[in-house]
Batch of 2 targets.
Target 1
Amino acid sequence: DQQVKQNSPSLSVQEGRISILNCDYTNSMFDYFLWYKKYPAEGPTFLISISSIKDKNEDGRFTVFLNKSAKHLSLHIVPSQPGDSAVYFCAASGRGGADGLTFGKGTHLIIQP
Amino acid sequence: KAGVTQTPRYLIKTRGQQVTLSCSPISGHRSVSWYQQTPGQGLQFLFEYFSETQRNKGNFPGRFSGRQFSNSRSEMNVSTLELGDSALYLCASSLVADSYNEQFFGPGTRLTVL
């Protein structure tokens, strides 16, 4: 039973446009959400996070939105750049982080010139 | 500052064998977490160690174990290897426990079980 789902295995976006990556979760005990970016042959790199007490968090070109009632979060990248091409993982942790991080299976973002 | 290092980077074993993977955290980091990445299941949390104590454990069989040493280096061991254990094993370190937004990942160890 997958508690964090990224339903789009891949996404292709033109350079300069907005990339929107989506993530759904089922466990209502999750209270902290993160996005990671992963290049081939490297470990994931933390991008941005959001606590369940917020509905939006911005960091430069990256914005994460959280809709608790829908158990949905999204990552917006504006404008998209070629270096953004990577696999993006959504992850969640429960109160106190007692079960570590639960990850989605990732979305492969391809930025086309 | 050196990043998280994992050794070996690649490993081939046969079914029934055991394997030990090593992770050296960033200097000063005391928390080490381990993850398994497979195409079918994605990234799954294995366990977390902090100050030589296992704090959290994911939903994996007892064949998967780990430990942390006084210098914060960590090892994970998989006994009686199965084909399904073929995966990329990632380790991540952070200064303190549960600090996921400040967790740095290593490049991983690619384990292939034949």
Note: The radius of gyration of chain A is 13 Å.
Target 2
Amino acid sequence: DAGVIQSPRHEVTEMGQEVTLRCKPISGHDYLFWYRQTMMRGLELLIYFNNNVPIDDSGMPEDRFSAKMPNASFSTLKIQPSEPRDSAVYFCASSSVLQGAFYNEQFFGPGTRLTVL
Amino acid sequence: GQSLEQPSEVTAVEGAIVQINCTYQTSGFYGLSWYQQHDGGAPTFLSYNALDGLEETGRFSSFLSRSDSYGYLLLQELQMKDSASYFCAVRNTDKLIFGTGTRLQVFP
């Protein structure tokens, strides 16, 4: 398997623009997680899905952030409008209760480095 | 509230043993995980403890004491490639709450 795939790998945009980050989880995984990593705040869970259904979005910072998972192989995280403080690395991770050496192991994608000017 | 505390940085020399501690205070607890992250890379899973005691995986071991809300990651026979950040993470239902990370620098 190719692992978790994220695109784009780097995104530079201007304040006020809409940003869409994409994630393809590992085939067969039923959990998908979106994280944000910054030096100041560390690795924060934004939202997670189980079987394409959002379970916990308490980490989504504000209404400017939204996430969808229209099917088992694709998820998006959208920021509209973007602000400089959104600059961070955004990771997508997936897991399965059935696969992996440890059922709770999360497999992370390479991340999207977002810079908002 | 929920908090996980780790030392911010640890240094050691090749071949040495280093222990990275993690204390946690969370509203729910299912187990403690450890992840490794190299600069510019993604976190990768190292270990998971659901029960008290020591789990060994090659050069790495992880320990958990639920009564003390404490765990540690033990790295033996350190190699230069072990230089990275190490995160403890509490599993709460289906999600992970990550600590702030410990940066390990291994010197020759």
Note: Chain B has no helices and eleven strands.
